[in-house]
Amino acid sequence: MKYLYLRTSKFLFILSFLFSVLSSFGQQNHGKIKGQITTSDGKPASDVNIILKNSKYGTTTDEDGNFEINRVRENVYTLQISLAGYETSEKEVTVEDNKTAIVNVQLKVSNKELQEVVINNKKSLLSKKTQYVARMPLKNIENPQVYNVIHKELIQEQIVIDVAGAVRNAPGVVPLTFPSGGFAVIFRGFTVGINSRNGMETLSGRSSVGIANVERIEVLKGPSGTLFGSSASSFGGVVNLVTKKPFEASATEISYTGGSFGVNRLTVDVNTPLTKDKKVLFRLNVAVNNEKSFLDYGFNKTISFTPSITFKASEKLTFNIDAELYKVNNTRVIYPAVTAASGLTNPGDIKLAYKKSLVHDDADAKSSSSKAFVQGEYLLSEHWKSTTLFSYVNEDVDYSYQVLPTWTSPTTATMRATLFGPISSNYTNIQENINGEFTTGILKHKILFGANYRYYTDTFSSTPTPAAPFRTIDVATNFNPVRKNEIDKVLLAPVIRAGRDEYTFSGYGSYVLGVADRFFAMASLRLDNFDRKESGTVPGYSQNSLSPKLGIVYQIVKDQVSIFGNYMNGFQNLAPVTQPGGEQLILDPLYANQFEGGVKAELFNKKLSATVSYYKITNDNAVIRQADLVYEQDGKQVSKGVEFEFLAHPFAGLDITAGYAYNDNRIVKTSEANKAIEGNKAQDAPEDVVNFWASYKFQNVLKGLGIGVGANYVDKTYMATTNTFYIPSYTVYNQSLFYEQSNWRIGLKINNLSNKHYWSSWGAPQAPANFLVNLTLRF
Description:
The chain is mostly beta strands. It is built from six helices and 45 strands. The longest helix is centred in the first third of the chain and has 25 residues, at 2-26. It is globular.
């Protein structure tokens, strides 16, 4: 605890130091200009360029249309308001030392027209505007929950071609690819898949996820069962993908990326109105990706097809319909198991050459996912709306060869394998949300009522090899990799599990009370009824779960600095287990509770966004299986830590994204039979994780040229709670160089500059130094 206290104090000191340094930049040593830009229909105009003619001063408006230019020398200036595709507006302004000049300008452009042109401009990487995190319009500075937003502009700037590279921009987040082909992330000591898409349940269990259609990635921190349910969240949080939507202009973007290990990637983004009155809008994103592994064997081929339509049926009713087809053909990653007698403590002890594969290309896998989403939004009145949502998600595995080596010495591995498939998982969700807000005096009320019906069904089959290994490989010799026909010869009879049918009915509500635009209190509650039907010889069961969420926020400096605290709950429904004597143990839902407190800041006209918090997540009723195979529900796991996020746009051209997370996740209580692991670190829970990225785009001379540098550090982590085999810590450095104009962009990215050899949290080797080159055309 003393160690954690010292770390917390240290980073609070760093935060205060950064604030003081930046405050010194913002001090009014000269004059200041501030104001708001609005559209012709009176709405805030965001992402509008504001500069002082013939000077070095400039900025852009934030999501509320506000701007601020500090430290301006005394003089008479011409303020230029520029917007791509429209004539530049100008207004004279007089600046005096130690005074603030107020300039408010209304553009000769409507909000609809504005949305058509800002799509081609870079949006602020600091923006945290979202309606999904709280399922209602709540600003970050008003929200008691911590969350991070990764925008597509940052993903493009870094020439990221997969979701793993994108999520590393969120503090404390570590990507993980499963041997099944699925994708997940680790943060706050827990693992969660990409289980939410535009706020609705999705999955990435066996076919992973593409990013060609991603507008932004939202990472919600802490147990989020109250608003998202147990199927989408883990005790660490939720990852929500927000997809690209149609807009009221014709635009096309074609992008090609090539690079090391045979990377060839083509993406096409086409947007167009389908009717003259622009009431029907269409957008299509297509991506084709082919690449080889850095290993001597291995490949990955994916294709995604994601059309979407917006239909404005009336002034009050709008439909959004989108679909996604994602197909994958690749070789699965393998991860090491080790025997106690092997003497191995980490993957670095294994004598297999870093670029050598144990498995041939022909032992591959094919999977696909099909998704359909329909949203109907109806304005009940000026301040109330109804949102009805339907989603269907299907994930199929045709076949998947998965090989498991067990290392018995640094040079010897015994091989087993399983052929999975066919497997099918199907999710249907119907959801209704009613949102409203009203004001009584100095009190502002925001209300959400919601209901969700979820139906899940699946089929599952697998074909194992014998328990005894079918082959032993000595990597000190010139061995041949395991091939498909070698596995096929020893496969046993298929194991077909009876399909599952699950029904979940949920009702939830959330209420936010705002007092004088300074104090905000949130109270939320969810009731789940979970019902699993009998499946073969496995009996069915039914459970009810109640999940609360509470939070408070006080703005010390209005709209700039707030302190917050929250209590959040997550849960998982658990099936009864059969004891050795034949009796059943009825398990309670597994609950985790989080207490968190911290500070949020959005300073200098939202050119700086920072969050620092301390949290503690406790799971009091973990299920423990004892050595005699008797189950008990009395374990306790505690995950606690500090998180710090720093986003800044200190002056035109420079953007900084940085974060630090410290997590201590331990098994603090077990049954008598498991005392050996009591006090041990939990698996997949690195202590220290750091992310950093900074880019600068030249503004005058060499305008259009930019450079970016970044690094990611992940601390040592254990593969199991026995704490005997660990994954070493690593630091990876990256750099990019790019040149961009309004209708084209070319970029070069070098990943892993130091050629670091490192492994994923499950022991799979990661790519050494490599490069990517990208050309993007817009018209």
